[in-house]
Amino acid sequence: MLFALPDHDRLYQALVQRDAAFDGQAYVGVATTGVFCRLTCPARKPRPENCSFFGSVRDCLDAGYRPCKRCHPLAPEAMADPSIPVLLAALDERPDHRFSEADVERMGFDPSTVRRAFKRQYGMTFLDMARQRRLRDGFVTISAGGSVIDAQLDARFESASGFRAAFAALLGRAPGRLDPDPLLFADWIATPLGDMISICSRSELHLLEFIERKALRTELGRLDRHAKGRIGLGKTPPGAQIRDELADFFAGRSAEFRTPLAYHGSGFTQLVWDELRRIPPGAVCSYTDIARRIGRPEAVRAVARANGANQLAVVVPCHRVLGADGALTGYGGGLWRKQKLIEIERQFTMDAKRGGVA
After folding, report:
1. Which of 51, 68, 285, 318 is catalytic?
2. Do residues 59 and 326 lie in contact, with contact meaning Cβ atoms separated by under 8 Å?
3. Whole-prediction pTM value?
4. In the CATH hierarchy, which top-level class contains the domain 267-353?
5. How far apart are CA 264 and CA 254, in angstroms?
6. Which CATH code fits 8-67?
7. Are the folds of 77-169 and 267-353 the same?
8. Is beta strand 285-286 parallel, antiparallel or unpaired with respect to 321-322?
Protein backbone atom coordinates (compact mmCIF):
# COMPACT_ATOMS: atom_id res chain seq x y z
CA MET A 1 0.00 0.00 0.00
CA LEU A 2 1.49 3.36 -1.08
CA PHE A 3 -0.61 5.51 1.24
CA ALA A 4 -0.01 5.17 5.00
CA LEU A 5 -3.23 5.74 6.95
CA PRO A 6 -3.14 8.45 9.64
CA ASP A 7 -4.38 7.63 13.12
CA HIS A 8 -8.05 7.12 14.02
CA ASP A 9 -8.59 10.64 15.34
CA ARG A 10 -7.22 12.30 12.20
CA LEU A 11 -9.34 10.09 9.95
CA TYR A 12 -12.47 10.72 12.00
CA GLN A 13 -11.85 14.45 11.70
CA ALA A 14 -11.52 14.02 7.93
CA LEU A 15 -14.82 12.10 7.92
CA VAL A 16 -16.61 14.87 9.81
CA GLN A 17 -15.14 17.51 7.50
CA ARG A 18 -15.76 15.40 4.37
CA ASP A 19 -12.15 15.96 3.39
CA ALA A 20 -11.83 15.16 -0.34
CA ALA A 21 -8.05 14.68 0.02
CA PHE A 22 -8.77 11.19 1.40
CA ASP A 23 -11.18 10.14 -1.35
CA GLY A 24 -10.01 6.82 -2.78
CA GLN A 25 -7.29 6.57 -0.14
CA ALA A 26 -9.30 5.78 2.98
CA TYR A 27 -12.73 4.34 3.78
CA VAL A 28 -14.80 4.08 6.94
CA GLY A 29 -16.69 0.99 8.08
CA VAL A 30 -19.62 1.72 10.38
CA ALA A 31 -20.31 -1.01 12.93
CA THR A 32 -23.92 0.02 13.62
CA THR A 33 -25.03 -0.17 9.97
CA GLY A 34 -22.61 -2.71 8.49
CA VAL A 35 -21.80 -0.41 5.54
CA PHE A 36 -18.59 1.24 4.40
CA CYS A 37 -18.32 4.72 2.93
CA ARG A 38 -16.02 7.24 1.37
CA LEU A 39 -14.91 9.86 3.89
CA THR A 40 -16.81 12.39 1.75
CA CYS A 41 -20.13 10.58 2.22
CA PRO A 42 -23.02 13.03 2.89
CA ALA A 43 -24.75 10.64 5.32
CA ARG A 44 -25.13 11.47 9.00
CA LYS A 45 -21.81 10.94 10.77
CA PRO A 46 -21.49 7.95 13.14
CA ARG A 47 -19.95 8.14 16.57
CA PRO A 48 -16.15 7.69 16.54
CA GLU A 49 -16.27 4.45 18.54
CA ASN A 50 -18.44 2.89 15.79
CA CYS A 51 -15.91 3.67 13.04
CA SER A 52 -13.15 1.49 11.62
CA PHE A 53 -10.90 2.90 8.92
CA PHE A 54 -9.46 0.97 5.99
CA GLY A 55 -7.00 1.71 3.23
CA SER A 56 -8.79 -0.11 0.40
CA VAL A 57 -12.15 -1.33 -0.82
CA ARG A 58 -10.93 -4.89 -0.55
CA ASP A 59 -10.14 -4.48 3.16
CA CYS A 60 -13.68 -3.21 3.74
CA LEU A 61 -15.24 -6.12 1.85
CA ASP A 62 -13.00 -8.64 3.60
CA ALA A 63 -14.12 -7.21 6.95
CA GLY A 64 -17.73 -7.94 6.02
CA TYR A 65 -18.96 -4.41 5.26
CA ARG A 66 -21.26 -3.75 2.30
CA PRO A 67 -21.00 -0.60 0.12
CA CYS A 68 -22.97 2.51 1.03
CA LYS A 69 -25.85 3.31 -1.34
CA ARG A 70 -25.36 7.07 -0.92
CA CYS A 71 -21.68 7.59 -1.69
CA HIS A 72 -21.13 4.40 -3.77
CA PRO A 73 -17.55 3.62 -2.71
CA LEU A 74 -17.28 0.91 -5.38
CA ALA A 75 -18.33 3.24 -8.19
CA PRO A 76 -15.82 3.02 -11.03
CA GLU A 77 -14.83 5.75 -13.45
CA ALA A 78 -17.57 4.94 -15.96
CA MET A 79 -20.40 5.80 -13.61
CA ALA A 80 -18.64 8.98 -12.51
CA ASP A 81 -19.36 10.40 -15.98
CA PRO A 82 -22.76 12.09 -15.51
CA SER A 83 -24.06 11.15 -18.95
CA ILE A 84 -23.54 7.39 -18.69
CA PRO A 85 -25.98 6.41 -15.89
CA VAL A 86 -28.65 8.76 -17.28
CA LEU A 87 -28.44 7.36 -20.81
CA LEU A 88 -28.25 3.74 -19.64
CA ALA A 89 -31.41 4.35 -17.60
CA ALA A 90 -33.08 5.88 -20.68
CA LEU A 91 -32.31 2.72 -22.67
CA ASP A 92 -33.96 0.59 -19.98
CA GLU A 93 -37.00 2.87 -19.72
CA ARG A 94 -37.63 3.18 -23.49
CA PRO A 95 -36.45 -0.08 -25.10
CA ASP A 96 -38.58 0.46 -28.24
CA HIS A 97 -37.38 4.01 -28.95
CA ARG A 98 -35.08 4.78 -31.89
CA PHE A 99 -32.59 7.04 -30.11
CA SER A 100 -30.79 9.80 -32.04
CA GLU A 101 -28.27 12.52 -31.27
CA ALA A 102 -31.21 14.90 -30.94
CA ASP A 103 -32.45 12.78 -28.00
CA VAL A 104 -29.02 13.02 -26.39
CA GLU A 105 -29.11 16.83 -26.74
CA ARG A 106 -32.64 17.00 -25.30
CA MET A 107 -31.36 15.18 -22.21
CA GLY A 108 -28.80 17.95 -21.76
CA PHE A 109 -25.63 16.27 -23.08
CA ASP A 110 -23.24 17.07 -25.89
CA PRO A 111 -23.38 14.22 -28.46
CA SER A 112 -19.64 14.29 -29.20
CA THR A 113 -18.78 14.12 -25.48
CA VAL A 114 -21.22 11.23 -24.99
CA ARG A 115 -19.80 9.47 -28.05
CA ARG A 116 -16.27 9.62 -26.61
CA ALA A 117 -17.38 8.57 -23.11
CA PHE A 118 -19.24 5.47 -24.32
CA LYS A 119 -16.49 4.55 -26.77
CA ARG A 120 -13.91 4.80 -23.99
CA GLN A 121 -15.89 2.70 -21.52
CA TYR A 122 -17.73 0.20 -23.74
CA GLY A 123 -15.96 0.20 -27.10
CA MET A 124 -19.14 1.45 -28.82
CA THR A 125 -21.16 4.65 -28.96
CA PHE A 126 -24.46 5.18 -27.16
CA LEU A 127 -26.35 5.01 -30.46
CA ASP A 128 -24.58 1.73 -31.33
CA MET A 129 -25.66 0.35 -27.96
CA ALA A 130 -29.26 1.48 -28.55
CA ARG A 131 -29.28 -0.24 -31.96
CA GLN A 132 -27.92 -3.40 -30.39
CA ARG A 133 -30.74 -3.41 -27.85
CA ARG A 134 -33.28 -3.22 -30.71
CA LEU A 135 -31.44 -5.99 -32.51
CA ARG A 136 -32.55 -8.33 -29.74
CA ASP A 137 -36.13 -8.34 -31.05
CA GLY A 138 -34.95 -9.39 -34.50
CA PHE A 139 -32.74 -12.06 -32.99
CA VAL A 140 -35.71 -13.50 -31.10
CA THR A 141 -37.86 -13.48 -34.24
CA ILE A 142 -35.31 -15.48 -36.24
CA SER A 143 -34.78 -17.89 -33.31
CA ALA A 144 -38.51 -18.62 -33.38
CA GLY A 145 -38.40 -19.44 -37.11
CA GLY A 146 -39.42 -16.03 -38.44
CA SER A 147 -38.17 -14.55 -41.70
CA VAL A 148 -35.34 -12.03 -41.97
CA ILE A 149 -37.84 -9.40 -43.16
CA ASP A 150 -40.04 -9.96 -40.11
CA ALA A 151 -36.94 -9.80 -37.90
CA GLN A 152 -35.91 -6.50 -39.47
CA LEU A 153 -39.35 -5.00 -38.84
CA ASP A 154 -39.48 -6.32 -35.26
CA ALA A 155 -36.07 -4.76 -34.63
CA ARG A 156 -37.34 -1.44 -36.09
CA PHE A 157 -34.52 -1.12 -38.63
CA GLU A 158 -35.43 1.01 -41.65
CA SER A 159 -33.26 -0.92 -44.11
CA ALA A 160 -32.61 -4.62 -44.64
CA SER A 161 -28.92 -3.94 -45.23
CA GLY A 162 -28.64 -2.06 -41.93
CA PHE A 163 -30.25 -4.94 -40.07
CA ARG A 164 -28.02 -7.52 -41.73
CA ALA A 165 -24.92 -5.43 -40.98
CA ALA A 166 -25.87 -4.99 -37.31
CA PHE A 167 -26.62 -8.69 -36.97
CA ALA A 168 -23.27 -9.60 -38.59
CA ALA A 169 -21.44 -7.17 -36.30
CA LEU A 170 -22.81 -9.07 -33.31
CA LEU A 171 -22.60 -12.72 -34.41
CA GLY A 172 -19.96 -12.46 -37.11
CA ARG A 173 -22.28 -13.36 -39.98
CA ALA A 174 -25.53 -12.13 -41.53
CA PRO A 175 -28.76 -13.99 -40.61
CA GLY A 176 -28.98 -15.62 -44.05
CA ARG A 177 -25.56 -17.25 -43.50
CA LEU A 178 -26.46 -19.00 -40.23
CA ASP A 179 -26.22 -22.78 -40.39
CA PRO A 180 -29.66 -24.46 -40.63
CA ASP A 181 -28.31 -27.57 -38.87
CA PRO A 182 -25.93 -26.09 -36.26
CA LEU A 183 -23.60 -27.71 -33.76
CA LEU A 184 -23.61 -24.58 -31.58
CA PHE A 185 -26.74 -22.55 -30.82
CA ALA A 186 -26.80 -18.84 -29.95
CA ASP A 187 -29.47 -17.51 -27.62
CA TRP A 188 -30.23 -14.04 -26.23
CA ILE A 189 -30.72 -13.66 -22.47
CA ALA A 190 -32.04 -10.45 -20.90
CA THR A 191 -30.75 -9.69 -17.38
CA PRO A 192 -31.08 -6.74 -15.00
CA LEU A 193 -27.47 -5.82 -15.87
CA GLY A 194 -28.00 -5.90 -19.62
CA ASP A 195 -28.43 -8.42 -22.39
CA MET A 196 -26.20 -11.47 -22.72
CA ILE A 197 -25.44 -13.96 -25.48
CA SER A 198 -25.11 -17.66 -24.70
CA ILE A 199 -23.59 -20.20 -27.08
CA CYS A 200 -24.40 -23.83 -26.30
CA SER A 201 -24.07 -27.25 -27.81
CA ARG A 202 -26.81 -29.72 -26.98
CA SER A 203 -24.89 -30.74 -23.85
CA GLU A 204 -22.69 -27.82 -22.67
CA LEU A 205 -22.43 -24.05 -22.32
CA HIS A 206 -19.51 -22.74 -24.41
CA LEU A 207 -19.88 -18.97 -24.03
CA LEU A 208 -21.83 -16.50 -21.91
CA GLU A 209 -21.07 -12.82 -22.41
CA PHE A 210 -22.63 -9.37 -22.12
CA ILE A 211 -23.28 -8.17 -25.65
CA GLU A 212 -21.20 -4.99 -25.19
CA ARG A 213 -18.01 -6.93 -24.38
CA LYS A 214 -15.29 -5.73 -26.73
CA ALA A 215 -13.86 -9.23 -27.18
CA LEU A 216 -17.20 -10.88 -28.01
CA ARG A 217 -16.67 -10.82 -31.78
CA THR A 218 -13.22 -12.42 -31.38
CA GLU A 219 -14.57 -15.07 -29.01
CA LEU A 220 -17.41 -15.90 -31.40
CA GLY A 221 -14.93 -16.19 -34.25
CA ARG A 222 -12.93 -18.79 -32.33
CA LEU A 223 -16.07 -20.78 -31.59
CA ASP A 224 -17.13 -20.52 -35.22
CA ARG A 225 -13.83 -22.08 -36.29
CA HIS A 226 -14.19 -24.73 -33.57
CA ALA A 227 -17.64 -25.64 -34.93
CA LYS A 228 -16.41 -25.41 -38.56
CA GLY A 229 -18.93 -22.65 -39.29
CA ARG A 230 -21.91 -24.53 -37.89
CA ILE A 231 -23.32 -21.84 -35.58
CA GLY A 232 -27.02 -21.04 -35.64
CA LEU A 233 -29.79 -19.80 -33.36
CA GLY A 234 -31.94 -21.91 -31.09
CA LYS A 235 -32.77 -23.37 -27.71
CA THR A 236 -30.89 -26.20 -25.98
CA PRO A 237 -31.14 -27.88 -22.55
CA PRO A 238 -27.98 -26.15 -21.22
CA GLY A 239 -29.20 -22.86 -22.69
CA ALA A 240 -32.49 -23.18 -20.81
CA GLN A 241 -30.64 -24.19 -17.64
CA ILE A 242 -28.28 -21.21 -17.65
CA ARG A 243 -31.21 -18.87 -18.36
CA ASP A 244 -33.02 -20.19 -15.27
CA GLU A 245 -29.90 -20.08 -13.11
CA LEU A 246 -29.18 -16.48 -14.10
CA ALA A 247 -32.78 -15.56 -13.25
CA ASP A 248 -32.34 -17.13 -9.80
CA PHE A 249 -29.03 -15.33 -9.32
CA PHE A 250 -30.32 -11.86 -10.17
CA ALA A 251 -33.50 -12.44 -8.14
CA GLY A 252 -31.40 -13.26 -5.07
CA ARG A 253 -32.54 -16.88 -4.84
CA SER A 254 -29.31 -18.76 -5.61
CA ALA A 255 -25.68 -18.08 -6.51
CA GLU A 256 -25.04 -21.67 -7.60
CA PHE A 257 -24.46 -22.56 -11.26
CA ARG A 258 -24.63 -26.22 -12.31
CA THR A 259 -24.90 -25.87 -16.09
CA PRO A 260 -22.30 -28.16 -17.74
CA LEU A 261 -19.43 -26.06 -19.11
CA ALA A 262 -17.11 -26.44 -22.09
CA TYR A 263 -13.77 -24.68 -21.56
CA HIS A 264 -11.81 -23.29 -24.52
CA GLY A 265 -8.34 -22.47 -23.23
CA SER A 266 -4.92 -23.84 -22.33
CA GLY A 267 -4.37 -26.16 -19.40
CA PHE A 268 -3.06 -23.25 -17.32
CA THR A 269 -6.03 -21.07 -18.25
CA GLN A 270 -8.49 -23.80 -17.28
CA LEU A 271 -6.67 -24.22 -13.97
CA VAL A 272 -7.21 -20.53 -13.24
CA TRP A 273 -10.89 -20.71 -14.22
CA ASP A 274 -11.44 -23.67 -11.91
CA GLU A 275 -9.85 -21.69 -9.07
CA LEU A 276 -12.09 -18.72 -9.82
CA ARG A 277 -15.12 -20.97 -9.38
CA ARG A 278 -13.87 -21.88 -5.89
CA ILE A 279 -14.13 -18.26 -4.69
CA PRO A 280 -17.31 -18.16 -2.58
CA PRO A 281 -20.07 -15.72 -3.59
CA GLY A 282 -19.56 -12.47 -1.70
CA ALA A 283 -15.80 -13.00 -1.36
CA VAL A 284 -13.08 -11.24 -3.35
CA CYS A 285 -9.39 -11.87 -3.90
CA SER A 286 -6.45 -10.63 -5.98
CA TYR A 287 -4.51 -12.05 -8.93
CA THR A 288 -1.69 -12.72 -6.46
CA ASP A 289 -4.05 -14.77 -4.30
CA ILE A 290 -5.11 -16.88 -7.29
CA ALA A 291 -1.50 -17.44 -8.40
CA ARG A 292 -0.60 -18.60 -4.90
CA ARG A 293 -3.60 -20.93 -4.66
CA ILE A 294 -2.76 -22.75 -7.89
CA GLY A 295 0.84 -23.19 -6.79
CA ARG A 296 2.27 -20.66 -9.28
CA PRO A 297 3.05 -17.57 -7.14
CA GLU A 298 5.36 -16.18 -9.83
CA ALA A 299 2.64 -16.27 -12.51
CA VAL A 300 0.56 -13.26 -11.46
CA ARG A 301 0.53 -11.71 -14.95
CA ALA A 302 -0.39 -15.02 -16.56
CA VAL A 303 -3.24 -15.36 -14.06
CA ALA A 304 -4.45 -11.87 -15.01
CA ARG A 305 -4.39 -12.83 -18.71
CA ALA A 306 -6.32 -16.04 -18.01
CA ASN A 307 -8.83 -14.04 -15.99
CA GLY A 308 -9.31 -11.65 -18.91
CA ALA A 309 -9.71 -14.55 -21.36
CA ASN A 310 -12.71 -15.94 -19.48
CA GLN A 311 -15.70 -16.23 -21.83
CA LEU A 312 -18.20 -17.56 -19.30
CA ALA A 313 -19.20 -14.38 -17.50
CA VAL A 314 -20.78 -14.63 -14.03
CA VAL A 315 -20.57 -18.46 -14.08
CA VAL A 316 -16.74 -18.37 -13.97
CA PRO A 317 -16.66 -15.40 -11.58
CA CYS A 318 -13.71 -13.32 -12.75
CA HIS A 319 -15.60 -10.33 -11.32
CA ARG A 320 -14.56 -11.51 -7.84
CA VAL A 321 -10.92 -10.61 -8.54
CA LEU A 322 -9.79 -7.10 -7.54
CA GLY A 323 -6.49 -5.30 -7.96
CA ALA A 324 -3.78 -5.73 -5.34
CA ASP A 325 -4.92 -2.45 -3.74
CA GLY A 326 -8.56 -3.55 -3.67
CA ALA A 327 -9.58 -1.40 -6.64
CA LEU A 328 -11.97 -2.50 -9.37
CA THR A 329 -9.87 -3.44 -12.38
CA GLY A 330 -10.26 -4.82 -15.89
CA TYR A 331 -13.67 -6.35 -16.47
CA GLY A 332 -14.71 -7.00 -20.08
CA GLY A 333 -18.40 -6.43 -19.35
CA GLY A 334 -17.71 -2.97 -17.88
CA LEU A 335 -16.50 -1.94 -14.43
CA TRP A 336 -19.98 -0.76 -13.47
CA ARG A 337 -21.23 -4.34 -13.95
CA LYS A 338 -18.36 -5.70 -11.87
CA GLN A 339 -19.43 -3.37 -9.09
CA LYS A 340 -23.05 -4.49 -9.33
CA LEU A 341 -22.16 -8.19 -9.36
CA ILE A 342 -20.08 -7.77 -6.20
CA GLU A 343 -22.96 -5.91 -4.54
CA ILE A 344 -25.43 -8.67 -5.51
CA GLU A 345 -23.18 -11.36 -4.08
CA ARG A 346 -22.55 -9.38 -0.91
CA GLN A 347 -26.30 -9.45 -0.36
CA PHE A 348 -26.26 -13.26 -0.61
CA THR A 349 -23.65 -13.25 2.16
CA MET A 350 -25.68 -10.89 4.35
CA ASP A 351 -28.85 -12.96 3.83
CA ALA A 352 -27.00 -16.14 4.77
CA LYS A 353 -25.80 -14.52 8.00
CA ARG A 354 -29.37 -13.57 8.81
CA GLY A 355 -30.52 -17.12 8.13
CA GLY A 356 -32.16 -16.27 4.82
CA VAL A 357 -31.26 -17.33 1.28
CA ALA A 358 -28.00 -19.29 1.13
Report:
1. 318
2. yes
3. 0.70
4. mainly alpha
5. 26
6. 3.40.10.10
7. yes
8. parallel
